[in-house]
Design a protein that fits this description.
Elements lengths: L4 H11 L4 E6 L3 H8 L8 E6 L8 H7 L7 E3 L4 E4 L4 H6 L5 E5 L22 E8 L1 H5 L7 H9 L7 E4 L1 E5 L3 H12 L17 E3 L4 E2 L4 E2 L3 E3 L4 E2 L4 E2 L3 E3 L4 E2 L4 E3 L1 E3 L3 E3 L4 E3 L1 E4 L2 E4 L4 E4 L7 E2 L4 H24 L1 H13 L7 E6 L12 E6 L16
Parallel strand pairs: 1-2, 5-7, 9-12, 10-13, 11-14, 12-15, 13-16, 14-17, 15-18, 16-19, 17-20, 18-21
Antiparallel strand pairs: 3-6, 4-8, 5-6, 19-24, 21-22, 22-23, 25-26
Length: 390
Amino acid sequence: MDRAFIEHVVGCLVQAGTEEIDFVLSHAAGRFEELLRDGRRWHARFRNHLARNADRPYDLLKIIASSLPEEPLLLGHGDRLPLFEPDSFRSWSNRTAPVLFCWRPNRCANDSPPTLPGLRGDEGLLWTGWSRLARKDLEDLPSRLDEAGLERYLSSRRDCEIEAVEVGEPLSVVSYTHYLRSQRRVLNAGFHGVSPAAGLREGGVLLGPGCILHPNARLVPPVAIGPETQIENGAQIGPNAAIGGNCILKNRCRIRDAAVLAGSVVGEAIELQDVIVDRNRVINIRLAADLTVVDRFLPGSRPEPRLRSVMTNLKRVLFRLGAWIILIIHWPLMVFAFAGLVYERRKPRFYGKEVVRLPVPAERSQWRTYRLVCLTEPPPGTDSRWGHFF
C-alpha cells in the first residue's frame, strides 16, 4: 500500500540475512531496475536477468546457477510473500533435501482465500511458490517449464526426498482478488513485518503526513491513508480501505474493502466496494470488470499542481515553436521537391494519413489522432519513418 510489493519482499529477505538476490525479469524490466537499482539501499547486491518468455522464465535459472557458490538457495516468486518466522532461514539452510514451503487454507472459513498453484496430494497443502534448493537442483531443471510444470517437477522428484514445510498463508498480488485479500490481512494485522501494519496497531487508522481531513469526514478502522490526500465533507472511508498518496475523495463518497491508488480522484457520492481504483481505471472484483472511466465526475486523475501544469504548458509551447522553426528552415527544400515533380511532369498531389498523436495513453479508447499531410503517397510496403517527407 505504501510502496511496491516487491519492496516488501526484498525488505523481508534482507531482514532475514539475505545479501545477494538475482531477479529474473520480463515485463517492465526498466521500471523495475529503476525502482530497486543495485540494492545499496538495502545494503545488499542485486543482479537482474531478462527472460525472453515471461511464461517460461525458468530456463535462465540454469545459467544463473552456474555462477553461484555451493550453498543453499532460496527460489521464490516476487508476487508472493510467505509468512516466514524470522529465525527459520537458519534452520532450513542446514537441510540437504529440497524444501517446498506450503500453506494450508482454512476450508471452513466463510472468507475462504483464493487458491494459488499448489501441491496435488491428500495433504491439502498449497505451494507458496517458494522453495529452498541446492545449486544442482537448478542446473537439473527441465527446459521450457512454466510455473505449473515447475511445481510438478519439484513435488514429484524421485531421486531425492522432498520435504514440505508448512508456513502461514502468503501475501499475494497474483490477481486483483489476491491483492485486496492481502491488503485486508495487512490492515487487520494478519501479517507481521509488513508496514503499515505496525502503524495500525493503535486505533486502526494510519494517516500519512500532509493529509487534509474534513471535520465531518468519517474514518472506520482499519484504514490507511497516504500522504497529501484530501478527504472532503461527509466522506466515509473504511473499513478495510487503503488510500494512496495525493488523492482527492470528494463529498459524501463511500469507500470500503477497496484500494484507491496514488493520484486518483473519487467523485461526489460515489460508493466503492471490492474495487481497485487507479486514476480513471476501475477494477471491480465481484463483477470481474475492468473499466476505463472518461467522465470527470467519476473516478479519475488528480490535476497536476499549478507549478507543474505551468511547466507542462511551457514545454508544449517550446516544442511547437521548435517544430515551426524546423518547418521554416526546411521550407526551401519542400519547394525544391515540389518544383522537381512539376519538372518531371508528375502531377503533385497531397495525401493525408491518419496518425496517432503522442504521447499515447495506455487505454486505446483515449488515443487522439490527426491527419498528417504528405506531398506524395509512399510506395506500397514502405515502412520508413522518413517516408512521408518524400
